[in-house]
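re: ur question from the group chat, yeah i did fold both. here u go
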Amino acid sequence: MSSAELPPRLSIVIPVLNEATTLAAHLTGLQPLRAQGVEVLVVDGGSDDRSAQIAQPLADRVLNSPTERARQMNLGAQYATAPALLFLHADTQLPKNAIEQILQALKRHAWGRFDIKLSGYSGWLPVVSWMMNQRSRLTGIATGDQGMFMHVSTFKAVGGFPEQPLMEDVELSKRLKRLSRPVCLKAKVVSSGRRWDEFGAWKTIRLMWRLRYRYWRGVSATQLAKEYRDAR
């Protein structure tokens, strides 16, 4: 039996929304993994560009979902057939040997994430990346663009992503921490720093910290999502 005929070892769930300009390149980079027992599921949240059509020949499954990242990822997990999950943003690239590192880590840990390197033009991006990694290592809270991975059984045990419009990754981390702290892999995923480049590094840093602080203070994710949209 060839590796392509074996049950998948890992399912990668990719939520997308209007990613047509970069999606083909991103998914093309994942094709060698599909031949190594990795399943790729793309969950479109109602794109009005050609994201779903572009993904069709480059994914094992393309699903349609209401627009909201948490719902999209939960739907992808529902259709995943491997015993382990990796939630990957559409603008995040995996490091070398990522799959083997994940599967090795999951032999001893329930969940984890990678360190992150933000790519872009701002000279502040290396500092932001370092701060994200240190904060996550200290608090045990991961963000979605760090490539969160876990056993399917772990994901189900905590009820999946809370279906809220923002901070779903923070909330899932809190739930997972009740089971165990994450393994923090030093290998770096590379995520786009377009948010910082487009809206300004300091403005975005202040916005992110203000949103996280207000969430910690108990402000609803719905209200914070509105403030996030208004600030952009």
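okk and heres the other one u asked abt
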Amino acid sequence: MLRLLTLVFLLFLFSPEAFSQSLRERLGRTYVSSDSVDIIFELEKENLHSANDSGVYWFFVAEDYNRKFENELAHETFLKSAKLLNPEENSDLISLCYIRLNRLEATSGNWDQALFYSQKGLENATAALDSNYMGYALLDISVVYHDMEDYAKGVEYGKKAYELLADFSGARPTFKAFALNAIGINFDDWDKPDSALHYHYKILENIDELDSLRISFTFNNIGNTLLKQQKYQEAKTWLQTAVKVNMKDQNSYSLAANYTNLGTIAYQLRDFQEAEVMMDSAYKYVELSQSTEKMRDYLEEQYLFHKAKGELSAAMGYLEEFTVLKDSIFKEERVKMLGELETKYQVQTKERELAESRAALAENELLVKNRNNQVLLLVVFLLIILGVAFFIYYRQKSKNRHLEQEAKLQQIYAEQETQKKLHEQRNRISSDLHDNIGAQLTFIVSSLDNLKFMELSKESMASKIDQISAFTVETVNELRDTIWAMNKDNISLQDLETRLSTLISKAKNACPQIAFELHFDQNLEKDFLLNSMEGVNFYRIAQEAINNAIKHAGASRIRIYFKGTVDRLQVCIEDNGKGIAGTGFGNGLGNMKTRAERIGRALKIDSEIGQGTQVCIQ
């Protein structure tokens, strides 16, 4: 059957799935396949391709020696493994090597070497930035000082371990429990049971995260503290629980402590028979554990047990053995070496703190330098933004100034154009005054001068004076019309309509038999503006045409109408009089033609004898 199982295991070991696992994972089976350990080690020798592979291999070999209590071989092999392992790949295995070496030395009572390996483990974990194993190394130091009965230092290092692990989010719960236990056992033997119980009970607060087999020491330590407080029954309950748990994995080290404490309770209660049974069991596990510490405790309790029983001879024998063993623990050279190791640890701690401080200072300087660079870049960026903004502002301001200057020049040009037009308009008006009003006044003056030299009858003289008076009135009216035009910069069609309506009203009074009509096309906007020259010449032409129709055509109907568009205004005056013979222009028609040409228009006359006359300004 055994051969069959071995064959199945070998088939599995050489299967593709097994080879896909790492060397460390394959060697890890030695923890659970105790019957195949030798075969696994033999087969895996062929898979060692580097020093690191050899280090991993010898670590598991050393673990096997350790489980078999072959302490010397285990010690030698752990050291061999630690030297071969690559810290960058397996720093945790190196830390475990030093933890095992600490235990082996502590079990043998070599506290100085135990402390040495704990410090080596601390150096390795610190270099790897592994907080879990840094905490573990510190709690191991705490336990060593406990075993050396230097409880103050034990508490100090235990608290360092717990604080480091408590501040680390990835801390293993079991390691935190170990740290609390280290503090608790130091307080316990320092005769501070309340503090000891505080830390022991604190372990149980996280019991859901812990394996009871890994914290079986807690049940024993609580019982031990209660024992010192002489709470025997309560202590016995905790210790019996510890025995049940430790029996599951045959933890001889812990069982040695459990039975020693149960023996103490029994003889304190004067149950010497029960005490002797417990002490015998304690001795069995002390031998199995090979622990000097447990042997020391056992010998001390045997001394006290026999003293209580009254067996003074046996008691003195155990006392002598206890004293010899205790003295071996506290030899002067060992104490000196411990002091040197403590000094070395303090120096290393200071150097590490100094290095961390320098690193933090360098990091801070780098941070300040980066901030300064960022501020400098920000300032440069702001200066660029301000420069661009100023350039845009200056350019816009120059553009606005240029536009303002251009607007002023256009305004000056417009004013000049206006002044030019006004000047031209004044010139035309002056010319009109000179050509018309001036000529008419000259004619009046000449007519009056001629009267002085004429010998006319009274009736003829009166007739001449009437003619001159009528001509004067006509000249005055034309002068008023000119003044009316000069008082306005522009004349709207509405103004022109009003002026013509007044003229027609006066003509109706003088000639009531004639029908007058004034008509504006609906498409014309009456607020359309003509310049004063256009307005007065349109008016004068219409006035002249009306006078001609009244005086010379004998018309019974005269019609004036405005048509066309504001861009091309057309004014026509038509009558139903006797018409004009021929196409030549007399004085009156010639004046109208001249006025039309002054404003850039043409004068068109349509007339037939007996069919009336139409005069149009086009």
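fwiw on the second one: DSSP finds 23 helices and seven strands in the chain. The first strand starts at residue 490 and ends at 492. idk if thats what u expected
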